[in-house]
């Protein structure tokens, strides 16, 4: 499977990925090799990684899985671990896990002694098709997602679809929401293909999604323009995700589950404001509700979610800017939403 | 006074500095202007800053002064403050303080929402001639200095020598140690000038020191080669500083006081290993002891300091590399020290 070239690094798949990491480690004279896992990837992915990796690991670092641990205190523990295990500026950190782990491991590596090398090996579908590209690293601040972080590129990203067999269906579907988004914002044929026939672990599709995201990021590395389209569904989706995480009465949603709801809601806004056809809107709603249970929202929930909107890190000067669809495969950015449309969007979602 | 051009920003002095910040703020459409102070700069420097600054400050953020507060927990408080006061990606943070404050404020700005603009206004002689150039930001990890951070450049650095009048003599002398270092590693005439006649607040000398450091940093932004000469006196100096900070029985040293001792010790190593003349060595010792009291070291102190050396962030693969002088004004890097020379160096220091 062909590699995808990003800014300063490549995303390699399968056999090429195995060759790439082994050659990289053989060529670089790293002082220490650190591997970061969580309790899940330690059990399910580490044995597979050991078969792939020809070198020896100097120290295994472990964190607890889950967005609630994506906190600066976890980073503090990791910085101390790196220091205690004699990490220095010539060390490398290999991050083996989902997006929470690779975001946090990337941030820790980017800031330990002002920056050491790191490699990301995403083990969930979501992190393969989303966090693998763009160099975003960081942690949450309370319920506010990714408020603290830096943009920094890994040495390489390695995709092994075999890790997906270690995930349950709910996790895998969460990643599928991002793949569907890639079709919606950029490639109608790809959307139609993945809507028509679900296959969550197909390497060619994973590669296609990575290539779409990479293409967008390369056009706009600093997120001044076109890159914003990647936020489709995320403005409301992030608020929904934060709200449910923070509220003991709500079921905690996976990222893909939250943005699936976000994409239906923002699809409705697209229909109202950017001429997305009712037919396309209904098709979007149907596609997402095939894979994702409808989330229950009370009026109080909706009010609280709209309050959270104004803290989204994308919001400049207190304004909330949305990405909307003009058509499937074609997105527009920087759109303000008249306040009254939000309740109509939630009403359409509930229909 | 002429400005010093660094990589992506300029260091402006006095009247030019006043004009530069006011014009910058007028030209940029910042959503919020945050000013960071500590209890000392709030009392002594903020009134002066308000006379300089033509714009209004949206929120004043305050931290406690002192190296012991240069910790990730202080950063967490600042990130939360920025978030609570509606900071967004178009906000700017102005750091008004010494090196601890500008290092930490720079790190917080570089990582808040993956990076917002910041301006440094160093208020101590040490931070004017040292932290003002190079883009190093960060915090300590326990007793290990600057273990967590990033390299990132401010929008500009502003030097107002009038702030030095707010400092006590001990603080000012601490900065003088770095100025003396600039002469030792790069410019014999400058060394002779500042040794001959002490003047801690002379703007032309401050500018000369900034220009020397800037010249070195521009030649080697990523610290692969010549930039390492800036660490003269710092390898042992940092270990001494950390040790005294952590040990309740030792008087806490200011940075300049610690590296003054470090420069005498590393001067001795230079004499032993790189042919620095005994005459030059004695001249160095005499110059530093004119301004800085001799530090008392027991044998146990020395053992503990040498243990700390191996954690210095400059040490790769567990090796300790020193910068030594071949002559006054001429430094060499990457020198290993035979273990037995350290006790001889401390013996010379105590003589």
From TrEMBL, chains A, B:
The keyword Membrane does not apply. Residues 62-173 form the 3-dehydroquinate synthase N-terminal domain. Its EC number is 4.2.3.4. GO terms for biological process: aromatic amino acid family biosynthetic process; chorismate biosynthetic process. InterPro entries: Dehydroquinate_synthase, DHQ_synth_AroB, DHQ_synth_fam, DHQS/DOIS_N, DHQS_C. GO terms for molecular function: 3-dehydroquinate synthase activity; metal ion binding; nucleotide binding. Keywords: Cobalt, Lyase, Metal-binding, NAD, Nucleotide-binding, Zinc. Its cofactor is NAD(+); Zn(2+); Co(2+). Gene3D superfamilies: 3.40.50.1970, Dehydroquinate synthase-like - alpha domain. GO terms for cellular component: cytoplasm. Residues 175-315 form the 3-dehydroquinate synthase C-terminal domain. Catalyzes the conversion of 3-deoxy-D-arabino-heptulosonate 7-phosphate (DAHP) to dehydroquinate (DHQ). PANTHER family: 3-DEHYDROQUINATE SYNTHASE. This is 3-dehydroquinate synthase. The gene is aroB.
């Amino acid at each position: 499977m062909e590699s995808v070239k990003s800014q300063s690094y490549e995303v390699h798949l399968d056999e090429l990925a195995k060759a790439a990491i082994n050659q990289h480690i053989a060529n670089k004279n790293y002082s220490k090799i650190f591997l970061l896992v969580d309790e899940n990837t330690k059990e399910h992915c580490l044995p597979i990684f050991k078969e792939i990796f020809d070198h020896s690991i100097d120290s295994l670092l472990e964190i607890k899985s889950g967005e609630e641990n994506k906190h600066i205190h976890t980073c503090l523990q990791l910085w101390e671990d790196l220091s205690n295990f004699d990490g220095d500026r010539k060390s490398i950190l290999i991050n083996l896990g989902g997006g929470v782990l690779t975001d946090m491991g990337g941030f820790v590596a980017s800031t330990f002694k002002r920056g050491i090398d790191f490699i990301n090996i995403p083990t969930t579908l979501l992190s393969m098709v989303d966090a693998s590209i763009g160099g975003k690293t960081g942690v949450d601040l309370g319920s506010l997602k990714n408020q603290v972080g830096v943009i920094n590129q890994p040495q390489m990203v390695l995709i092994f679809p075999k890790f997906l067999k270690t995930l349950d269906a709910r996790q895998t579907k969460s990643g599928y929401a991002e793949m569907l988004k890639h079709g919606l914002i950029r490639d109608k044929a790809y959307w139609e293909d993945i809507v028509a026939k679900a296959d969550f672990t197909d390497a060619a599709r994973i590669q296609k999604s990575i290539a779409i995201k990479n293409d967008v990021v390369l056009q706009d590395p600093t997120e001044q323009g076109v890159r914003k389209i990647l936020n489709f569904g995320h403005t409301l989706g992030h608020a929904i995700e934060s709200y449910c995480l923070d509220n003991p009465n709500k079921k905690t949603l996976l990222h893909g589950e939250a943005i699936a709801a976000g994409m239906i809601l923002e699809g409705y806004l697209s229909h109202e404001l950017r001429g997305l056809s009712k037919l396309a809107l209904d098709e979007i709603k149907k596609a997402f509700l095939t894979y994702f249970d409808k989330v229950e929202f009370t009026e109080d929930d909706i009010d609280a979610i709209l309050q959270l909107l104004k803290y989204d890190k994308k919001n400049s000067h207190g304004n909330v800017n949305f990405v909307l669809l003009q058509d499937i495969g074609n997105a527009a950015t920087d759109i303000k939403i008249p306040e009254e449309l939000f309740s109509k969007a939630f009403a359409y979602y509930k229909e």
